[in-house]
Design a protein that fits this description.
By secondary structure, the chain is an alpha+beta fold. The protein contains eleven helices and 15 strands. The chain has helices spanning about 10, 15-25, 45-55, 70-80, 90-105, 115-130, 145-150, 165-180, 180-205, 300-310, 360-385; strands at about 135-140, 155-160, 215-220, 225, 235, 245, 250-260, 265-275, 285, 290, 300, 320, 330-335, 340-345, 355. A hairpin with a 7-residue loop joins strand 14 and strand 15 (about 355). Bound molecules: zinc ion.
């Protein structure tokens, strides 16, 4: 048992520069990192949690109250014949330096699953607590970095959180994955495929096939406002960029031409092209909430953009001419959100394809909007009858 008066390593020294370096690097690691299980804000780097845990669990060998048994066992443990950390000499100071060097090196993500490190870490914890396994309690555990590292070094752990999402992450990461391992991943894939299949069945009607058999997988939209310049009145699609795809072998972007029919407002017609250089692609029509008219280059102030969008209830819906509704003629778009392009997959061909929208796409959107209205009405009917 470590006497109460004995200082812990963290109270006397800590390899902060090295641990920080590893913690920063860890942020850019995606593959295999627990952070990819579910996004959790303010997730603590595992490197920092691990290092701080060890520095708090282990006593400082230079403290006069530090048990001799621990010092002897730690010295033996750290002397394993690998050159991964500084080896301890005979002095207490050199043992402290060796422990700190071990902690700093194990904070490196590349070493996180190294069996030698894990084994040494567990032996050190056991040497410090020969009578009982230490319990690490983290009542606000969030993404679970602290309890995870505590389990890995052989502690018992208690983790909780008020947020149900955090609780689910904790349960999955600390209980389910260690218990079921790869089986759990297989099961997730199986259930995921089932859900995908069920969703496809339900949604297939909203993504009608193109005449050539291509299946739309995404509709790219822009909200629109009207140019308020007195002799213009053109529709301005609010676009941050004219790029559709920046992949090297599949560069696609939009460009436009102006059409000025007599008697009505001018408008822009879009086309899809394959740019050779970045410079061929225009910058978007919106910057810092200002919109620039493609027909007359006048700028619409952020206030006016906001006012026009709020008149359209945010601007995410298409406004259809409903006068013909019920006659069987598909309604025509007269404003609101505008389709820029449709992304499709072609049977037997690799990659994504981009095409301009057609009347059929708007018809599909209209049908989807009607189906949604019906669902909403049903749902509110249900809740009223409750
Ligand atoms: Zn204009």
């Amino acid at each position: 048992m470590i006497p109460k008066e004995c200082k812990r390593l963290a109270e006397v020294d800590f390899p902060i520069a090295e641990v920080s370096k590893h913690a920063v690097r860890e942020k850019s690691i995606r593959h295999g990192h627990p952070s990819t299980l579910h996004l959790w804000w303010a997730r603590r780097p595992l490197a920092a949690c691990w290092a701080m845990l060890m520095a708090l669990l282990l006593p400082d060998p230079c403290d006069p109250n530090c048990p001799d048994d621990f010092k002897q066992a730690a010295r033996r443990t750290l002397k394993v014949p690998v050159t991964l950390w500084k080896k301890p000499g005979e002095s207490d100071l050199s043992l402290r330096e060796s422990l700190l060097s071990f902690i700093a090196n194990f904070a490196n993500w590349d070493n996180s699953a190294n069996p030698t490190y894990l084994d040494v870490a567990r032996k050190l914890v056991r040497a410090a607590y020969p009578e009982e396994t230490p319990l690490v309690v983290d009542p606000f555990a969030g993404g679970g970095a602290i309890p995870l590292e505590a389990l890995r070094v052989g502690c018992e752990t208690f983790a909780s959180d008020l947020n149900p999402v955090a609780c689910l992450i904790l349960k999955t990461m600390l209980e389910d994955i260690p218990r079921h391992g790869p089986e759990l991943a297989d099961e997730l894939r199986r259930v995921g495929a089932q859900i995908k299949e069920a969703a496809e069945k339900k949604l297939v009607g909203f993504y009608p096939l193109d005449p050539d058999g291509a299946r739309p997988i995404a509709y790219l939209w822009a909200r629109t406002v009207r140019c308020e310049s007195p002799d213009c009145g053109a529709e301005i699609p609010l676009m941050r960029s004219f790029w559709l795809c920046k992949k090297a072998n599949r560069k696609r972007a939009l460009r436009y031409k102006l059409v000025r029919p007599k008697g009505t407002a001018p408008h822009v017609e879009l086309e899809i092209f394959e740019p050779i250089t970045e410079r061929e692609v225009l910058t978007g029509t919106v910057t810092r909430a200002r919109a620039t008219c493609l027909c007359c280059n006048k700028v619409l102030s952020p206030d006016r953009v906001r006012a026009q969008l709020s008149e359209q209830r945010g601007g995410a819906d298409v406004i259809f001419d409903e006068r013909q509704s019920g006659t069987g003629v598909p309604p025509v778009r007269i404003g609101g959100a505008r389709l820029l392009a449709v992304v499709t997959l072609k049977p037997g061909e690799q990659g994504r394809f981009y095409r301009l929208p057609t009347e059929r796409d708007y018809e599909a959107v209209w049908k989807a909007a009607k189906a949604l209205e019906k669902k909403v009405a049903q749902a509110s009917g249900l809740s009223e009858s409750d």
